[in-house]
Structure formats: C-alpha cells, structure tokens
Amino acid sequence: MSEPYSVLFPPDEPRPPLQREPPPFFQDLLLDQVVEAITAGREEYDLKPFFHTPLRSSSSVVFRQEVLRDLEDASLLAEILAFSASMRAVRADLSAAEKATYVRQRERWVLDAVAHYCEAVSRLAQVLSQASLRSRGLLGFSDHLRAYTASSAFRLLAEEAEGLRRRLASLRYTVLLRGLRVEVRPYAGEPDYSEEITLTFQRFRQGDAKEYRFSFPDWPEMNHVEARILDGVAELHADLFSRISRFCTAHRDFLDPSVVAFDREVQFYLAYLEFIAPLRQAGLPFCYPEVTETSKEVWADGVFDLALAHKLVREGSLPVCNDLSLTGPERILVVTGPNQGGKTTFARAFGQLHFLASLGLPVPGRTARLPLPDQIFTHFQRAELATDLHGRLEDDLLRIRQILRSATPRSIVIINEIFSSTTLQDALFLSQRVASAFLELDVLCVWVTFLDELSRLGEKVVSMVALVSPHNPEERTYRVVRRPADGLAYALALAKKYGLTYEQVRERVRP
Q1: pLDDT at 293
Q2: CB 454 within 8 Å of CB 419
Q3: How far is the CA of 3 from the CAs of 147, 201, 260, in angstroms?
Q4: Is the sign of the CA dihedral 495, 500, 506, 508 positive or negative?
Q5: Considering the domain 285-509 in this protein, what is its CATH number?
Q6: Which among 409, 475, 417, 407 is positioned nearest to 446, based on CA atoms?
Q7: Domain spans of the chain?
Q8: In contact, 248 and 161? CB cutoff 8 Å
Q9: Residue 142: closest CA among 115, 156, 123
Q10: What's residue 503's pLDDT?
Q11: pTM above 0.70, yes or no
Q12: DSSP tally for the chain: helices H, then strands E
C-alpha cells in the first residue's frame, strides 16, 4: 500500500523518520519555547515531531517554501482554515458516534460525519482547482483531490449520505402521550395543537408578561424515552433505517488517508504562519532563505532571536536586528563584548536561523543565504547539580569531546562561555586547542567568549563585538558588529566613567 500524499515531503525523496523527542540543542536555543508557542491550541494534530525533524536536502526545503508561498495568499489561507474547521466537525461527529449508547443515534452521527466530510472535500477540491497554485505540494494534492472526488466511489458516498439525510429530514410521525405511556404512530395529518393553543389564548394576553418558558439543553446523548421514540419511528420506517445501518457498516472507513494526512500536515504551515503574523505586523522581517548543500558561506541581514521577539512584541517592544556573514575561508564567529550586551542572544539567533531554514520555514531576517547543516551542536553553561560527579571543567571537556567525535564538515557548533570555571591562562589554552580542532574539522561555529585572543587566530576566524553606547558604557545597544575585539577599550571607558583611570586617580591623590 502506497503512502498517503504528503504536502511536507516531496514524493520523489525518502521521508526522514519523525523525531518525537526534541533535539538536544532545543533548550539552549530556546526553540523548545518557540515550538511550544507555535503548536499551542493545535495539540490534536501532534505537530511537534514535524518541528523536531530537519530536512536533509535543499530540494525538500524548497518544496516546503513553495507551499508556504502559496499559503501567503489570504483567500486561499481562509479556505484552508475553513476546511480545517470542517474536518474538526467531522472528528467531533465520529467522536460522538463512539460515545453514543444507542445504535440508531450512533448511526446518525456517522451519517452526519460522512456528509460533512464529503462537503468539505468537495469544497476544497473546487478551491484548489481554481486557485493560482505554484507549489508542487499543493498542485499534487489538488490533482489527487480532483481524481478522488471524480471517482464513482466518492460520488456514490456523497450522494447516498445526502439522500439518506434528506429522507430523515422529511420524516413525520405522531407521538401520543397518555399518562406515562408514550406511543408512536404514523402521521395522519393531525393538526398542530401548539399553534391552535397559542391562537386560543392570544386574546387573554395583556401586554408584556413575565416569561416562563425555558429551553431544554440539546444534550448529545439520548435518554431512554427519546431512544424508545426513535425505535418506534424506525419500526414505522424500517426500510430507511435498514439502509442507514447498511450504509454505516459499508463505510466504516470512509476517510481518505491522503485527506487525513493533508488535514494534519497543513497545520504545520498554518501554525507557523499564525505564530509569525503578529511579528510581521510589528515590522519585523521574515524571508525565505536560499539554502545550499554545496557552499559554506553564510550571510543574513536583519536577524533576530525568534523566542525573544515573541516575548517582546507581546510586551509592546521590538528586538534589535543584526547582520552576520561568513565568506571565503571564514568558519568561526568569535563574539566578545560586555555582559548582558546581546552576545548569547546573537548566538541563539544564529542557531535558530539555520534550524528553521532546515525545516523549510521563513526565517527571521530581511535576506539570508545559508548552508544546510547535517547536525547542530550547542555548548551552553549548565547549572551544577549536587548529584553530578563531574566538576564544571571536566563536564566542559567531556561535552566538547563528544561534539568533536560527532561533528562533520557540514555541522554547526555554538559555544557560549566555555571554560569559565578555570584560570584565564588555562581557559585560553584550552579554547585555542578546541578552536584549532574545529577549524581542522571545517565546521561552522559561533563562539561567545570573554577571551579577545580567540578572535585573532587567523583568517578563518572573524571578530564580532557587542556594542555599548559611545556616550554611556553602561548602556547596551544590543548591536553585534564586525570589528576587532575591544574588551580593553570597554574596560577603560568604564574606568573613565567612574573616575578610575590612572590619570584620574593620580589627580585625586595629588597633594
């Protein structure tokens, strides 16, 4: 049996196995928070495995980008959302059928589910056939729907379901109440006594009076009296109810696997577009990156941390956007600067950028050209646990060794303040050895550090600095730019602000 048609994976490429657990780097890059926010409210679709599983080919990335570009059309997006709502109604009908105690009520829920399903699928097939689609994913699914809805099996399913519902709607019968006895009889043209009573007592109406009528709640479950009345109606119309029973038995599995797959998979796109919509409205840029497997060059303009942006926009502010690039022989971005200056945020944004691109999604930024990584590794400081038998330095070394053993030339490594538990001299020695190993492996790396010397390891290493205000060294700009590391200049600026330079101190102590 062939796999259902997919709008997430190209039909001519093997599908990667979905990862139910998040990748190890998710927490360091705050992607766990991002995915949690994206999938909130869509738990029924089990979307997280799609966001945990990166694509391994640039053609698969382009396949998804094409679908997203089609879904940027507001009218098409509205129709897809309407289809999703209809499919939720179908699932609600089937769920009610499973819970129903009485067989005839269960059959009516199934009949309604089939009718709603056929209406939704027919409408979607019509919409897609008339839309100006460009993506292979939606064009292929449109072709599938066209063939499916034109098939004799689907037409008979839709026609029979609608015909049975019409016949049910046309049924008329009489219920006789004598004390506690309820009797169901064929309708014989009896008058509607409720209307006659209303007309009779209309003459006694004196203006607006207190309303004593109330509505009975429309419970989905039947009580035993309603069930017996329905049984009586079924006895009067045995042929119709027998046909309904045969219909429900024959079409127990009426859902098309490709339609079910589409209903779930399209939520991956809808959820992400819904998540970034308020960020776009706030003025933050998103782009479809050019993704390549043959080049290691990286350039991106207007990049920002998606997790931070989600938080700030809800609070009424915006993150600072930064530019980054690695060209020619460049492999490592060494980021230095003051604490709380945006260095870690910049490193996270770099990792998020590449992972979101590997999912085929629009990335934060105005423009971007990125390599497709095979793996992403992170090394951020962890809180020490009392049960941890390793010291912090040993833990750093063990984790780095694992990265060096697993990384390939297509990998990305993000380091944040490693070896901070040892002396400055030892930290510099160890960092230089690790950086040399990364360069030998030819990985791409962002390294946040307090060691300016790392930024001067040669042409393959680029120095980036988190800036402070030129007028106030304590004021962070959160801008990270290409320039030689100037930690000493920052320290001198702070010393000058607080009157602690050599000249200032000497002037104060002069007799």
Answers
A1: 95
A2: no
A3: 17, 67, 12
A4: positive
A5: 3.40.50.300
A6: 417
A7: 57-189+223-281, 285-509
A8: no
A9: 123
A10: 82
A11: yes
A12: 17, 14
Q: How far is CA 224 from CA 229, 234, 271, 435, 491, in A?
A: 9, 15, 43, 77, 83
- Give me the residues paired with residue 334 across strands: 447, 463
Instruction: Match 């945020």 to its residue by tokens.
Output: 345
- Total count of residues recorded for the chain: 511
| Cβ burial, residue 62 (10 Å; 0-12/13-18/19+) | middle
List the beta bridge partners of residue 379: 415
Furthest C-alpha separation in the chain: 121
What span, in angstroms and rounded, lies between the C-alpha atoms of 247 and 241? 10
**459-489 tens-digit pLDDT:** 999 999 999 888 877 788 999 999 999 765 5
According to DSSP, the β-strands at 367-371 and 290-292 are parallel
Q: Which amino acid is at 281?
A: Q
Mean pLDDT along residues 151-167: 96
Mean pLDDT score across all residues of the chain: 91
Q: How far apart are CA 178 and CA 195, in angstroms?
A: 20
CA 114/CA 93 separation, integer angstroms:
9
What is the DSSP secondary structure assignment for residue 177, as one 8-state letter? E
Tokens of 150: 């034109």
Provide the 8-state DSSP code for 328. Answer: T
Give the full edge-to-edge strand order of the sheet including 461-468: 376-379, 412-416, 444-448, 332-336, 461-468, 476-482
User: Across the strands, what pairs with 51?
Assistant: none
From CA 123, how far away is CA 85, in angstroms rounded? 13
Using CB atoms within 10 Å of the CB of residue 33, give its burial: 0 to 12 exposed, 13 to 18 middle, 19+ buried: middle
Closest CA to 95 of 66, 116, 79, 121: 116
Q: Which of 145, 147, 124, 143 is nearest to 77 (CA)?
A: 124
Instruction: Identify which of 224, 246, 225, 242 has the alpha carbon closest to the alpha carbon of residue 234.
Output: 242
